[in-house]
Design goal:
This protein has 68 residues and is mainly α. It has one domain. The chain is elongated. The model has no long low-confidence stretch (mean pLDDT 76). Keywords: Membrane, Transmembrane, Transmembrane helix.
């Protein structure tokens, strides 16, 4: 027996909007928080360099190691 409550698409959308929004959304002013204003940290800048370096290392090992 199915006991789930059936909702219209509008009710479902309103429910999801209310679930995602914090209770004190109006008072928190997320756009004025300093964490939201500063750019991304160093990890986002270093990660592509690490990936490229590992890729070059793998290619070098395959090239030089596979030439037995």
């Amino acid at each position: 027996m199915d006991t789930k409550e059936s909702k219209t698409p509008e009710e479902e959308k309103e429910h999801l909007t209310n679930e995602r929004k914090p209770e004190n959304y109006a008072a928190s002013k997320p756009e004025k928080q300093p964490e939201a204003q500063k750019p991304a940290g160093g990890m986002q800048k270093i990660l592509p360099l690490i990936i490229i370096g590992v890729g070059i290392l793998v290619v070098a090992l395959l090239f030089f190691g596979g030439a037995d």
